[in-house]
Write a structure and sequence with these properties.
By secondary structure, this protein is mainly alpha-helical. The protein has helices at about 15-45, 45-55, 65-75, 95-110, 115-125, 130-170, 180-200, 200-210, 215-220, 225-240, 245-280; strands at about 90, 180. Helix 1 (about 15-45) crosses helix 4 (about 95-110), helix 8 packs parallel to helix 11 and helix 10 crosses helix 11 (about 245-280).
């Protein structure tokens, strides 16, 4: 990859390998700095992060719980009323709440800094792109950010309440009482949100894999059935073992897969057009 010289001299030229490393180092440093700053902010605003965000899905007044319960009353399906009985979380280690506070702040800092991380890596690769590619790549950074946060919000508002309800109310015997550890609760919540955030990046992955020639629309159509099986398996992994939750994940992922096929077609058409223009200009 040949990046133009930007700050290591006045003459235009290619950067050496060590200059590449130096440039990459500063992008990584700025990314880490953004994570640390946002982690500190999350640590300071403890009450908001825990009471209003982390612990909210388990309460009856949470948006999703309230809407589903109202819908259940409307259609006379009592099972839609979830998380109607608040439960207490326990801490079994002396330093447990402090370490949990730090861990949550780190995850929050990473999630909030995601746009900055994407932007920094985009700025590192930008000099190696042609002017026509830069606009598309800049749009891909914005799209990746929006898709990630859409996935996180989807996991938080749709999957998290259902998972919390199912896992906390499930019993193997009436003689066994659930005492939920706060680390277990937060681990489940954060894994769901991060997993859905990353899975929603499927169209972006499809775009770049098509761009470098690894996949094409024909490949995606040919292996659509295999993709459906993989999507069902992913849904089973990140959701409770009930049909409603799995369908709730499968449907948007299947839509994203079909969107990926459309994106792949557009990329292939653009590559064919650019190739035809190049051949015409050199004929």
């Amino acid at each position: 990859m040949a990046l133009k010289r930007k700050q290591y001299g006045s003459n235009e030229g290619e950067m050496s390998f060590l200059e590449h490393l130096e440039e990459l180092r500063w992008h990584i440093i700025r990314s880490v700095l953004a994570i640390v700053i946002l982690m500190i902010a999350a640590f300071v605003f403890k009450n908001f992060i825990f009471d209003m965000v982390i612990l909210a899905p388990k309460n009856p007044g949470f948006f999703t719980n309230r809407v589903l319960c109202e819908l259940g009353q409307l259609v006379h399906i009592q099972a839609l009323c979830i998380n109607t009985t608040p439960f207490e979380l326990i801490n079994i280690k002396m330093s447990g709440q402090l370490t949990t506070h730090i861990a949550v702040s780190m995850v929050a800092g990473l999630i909030l800094a995601f746009p900055v991380i994407l932007w920094e890596f985009w700025k590192f690769f930008e000099p190696a792109l042609h002017s026509s590619e830069k606009q598309h790549a800049r749009g891909a950074v914005l799209a990746a950010t929006l898709l990630f946060f859409t996935g996180v919000l989807f996991g938080y508002y749709m999957l998290a309440p259902l998972s919390v309800h199912f896992l906390t109310s499930y019993q193997v015997s009436a003689d066994v009482t659930n005492q939920i550890n706060i680390r277990s609760y937060i681990g489940t919540l954060s894994s769901i949100c991060l997993a859905t955030g990353l899975i929603f990046e499927l169209p972006i992955v499809t775009y770049f894999l098509t761009k470098i020639g690894i996949i094409n629309p024909s490949f995606l159509k040919k292996y659509r059935r295999h993709a459906i099986v993989i999507i069902v398996i992913l849904a089973a992994i990140i959701t409770p073992p009930d049909v409603f939750s799995q369908a709730l994940v499968c449907i948007p992922l299947l839509i994203l897969y079909e969107i990926g096929i459309v994106i792949s077609k557009r990329v292939v058409k653009k590559k064919e057009k650019d190739h035809a223009d190049f051949m015409n200009n050199n004929s």
